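Standup notes, protein team

Yesterday: finished cleaning the Bacillus cereus set.
Today: Molybdopterin molybdenumtransferase structure.
Blockers: none.

Input for Molybdopterin molybdenumtransferase:
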Amino acid sequence: MLEKRIPIPVAEAVTRVMKYAYQGEMEKVSLIESYGRTLGEDVIADHDVPHFDRSPYDGFAIRAEDTKEASSSNPIQFEVIGEIGAGFVFTEEVKEFQAVRIMTGAAIPAGCNAVVMLELTEGFEENEKTYMKLKRSFVAGDNISFKGEDVKQNSILVKKGTVIKPGVAALLATFGYSTVYVVKQPVIGIVTTGSELLEVHEQLKPGKIRNSNSYMVAAQIERAGGIVQYYG
């Protein structure tokens, strides 16, 4: 006589099954092939981000102490001695009441400790020189994105077990990871039982149905990152 089956909650069933799960093996893949894969180990930052002090705005790099007396009734004038774009370094010495035109993402010139946003300044030419003036004071550190502000060296960038999505791929590329260790894709076999089942290519017969569930399960396996082996 068959023993009566006693149903259990889904959560309990999952817990029981997971007791028999084991850690998958890892493999190294190129970053370009890693989308959708699961990281097999923590990824560590090998440098700060940003790795230099930089400007978050278009504007002028200045010495904040030169603006101490600036006000709407007492604008301070600066000589613009150069320009620096993202990816370049300004090597000249920045002296008192001098400024450097700076673009978003560019490194802060040595000697400067603040950035004035472009819209807060007024530019003009005089005696074949370029000047700008401003009407408010600034303090050291104003409008500067400091080294390590976003990510500190040796911190965990992405944790083991994370599925690699476009944003994660971009982060890994930022830190020079051209290859990453990922969990090997599990190979999962599908075996169907049931005397009422037909293969999808077979003609319908009285009392029979096509085996649709296997294809649903196969799609779910692939969506979760597995490799399907269909055995009928």
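Follow-up from PR in the comments: The first strand starts at residue 26 and ends at 30.
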